[in-house]
Amino acid sequence: MLRENHRAMGTRKLYEVLQPFLLEHQIKIGRDALFDLLAQHKLLVKRRKRKISTTMSYHRFHKWPNLIKGFVPLGANALYVSDITYWKIETGFVYISFITDAYSHKIVGYQAAETLEAIESLTALKMALEPISEEIKEKLIHHSDRGVQYCSDGYVKLLQDNHIKISMTQNGDPLENAIAERVNGILKEECLCHFKVSTLEEARKVLEENVKLYNNERPHMSIGNLTPSFIHETNMKTERLWKNYYQKRKEEVIKC
Question: What is the pLDDT of residue 173?
Answer without folding.
Answer: 75
